[in-house]
Design brief:
The chain is an alpha/beta fold. The protein is built from 5 helices and 8 strands. A 4-stranded parallel β-sheet has the order 1-2-5-7. Strands 3-4 form a two-stranded antiparallel ribbon. A two-stranded parallel sheet has the order 6-8. A hairpin with a 7-residue loop joins strand 3 and strand 4. The chain starts with 8 loop residues before the first strand and ends with a helix.
């Protein structure tokens, strides 16, 4: 079968959003012709939160409004923002600080994306590796999701 029968959207990097095939057709046009919605990764990577056990927040809110307007103009219709939290119960991770920073970053990114016509994927990434139980992972996931919804 054709791949587009199984894929509804593709998340592109900024560089890829503006690239073309050998024939000169933009990747965005190629996707759109196949009924696949082009999206864009809009964050600028993660950075360690000082004073934590390697926990991170996501950079990229500066200039995001202008970038989202430009991405929409180029054909993107949804956006992705990476917000990573890790579970390490011995070190108290995820900390309240990491949860707060990532929840508010996701909320701000979501509002800015929507203001520019992009549908935001708001999805905190909770790393599942570690020695915790499934129940502990579920409890932490619920706590993080609740913080994100409250921030929205």
């Amino acid at each position: 079968g054709k791949w587009e029968q199984h894929i509804s959207g593709v998340i592109l990097f900024e560089e890829t959003l503006y690239q073309s095939t050998k024939d000169g057709k933009s990747f965005v046009s190629l996707l759109q012709e196949r009924g696949v919605v082009p999206g864009i990764k809009v964050d600028k990577g993660v950075c360690e939160i000082p004073g934590t056990y390697g926990e991170t927040f996501t950079q990229g809110l500066d200039g995001l409004n202008a970038r989202c307007a430009k991405y929409y103009e180029a054909g993107a219709r949804f956006s992705k923002w990476r917000a990573v939290l890790k579970i390490n119960l011995e070190d108290g991770c995820p900390s309240d600080l990491a949860i707060h920073e990532n929840a508010h970053g996701l909320a701000a990114y979501g509002a800015i994306s929507q203001a520019n016509g992009l549908v935001p994927i708001i999805e905190p990434e909770i790393l599942t590796d570690g020695t915790h139980t499934l129940e502990q992972c579920m409890e932490i996931t619920e706590k993080v999701q609740a913080a994100v919804v409250q921030a929205l």
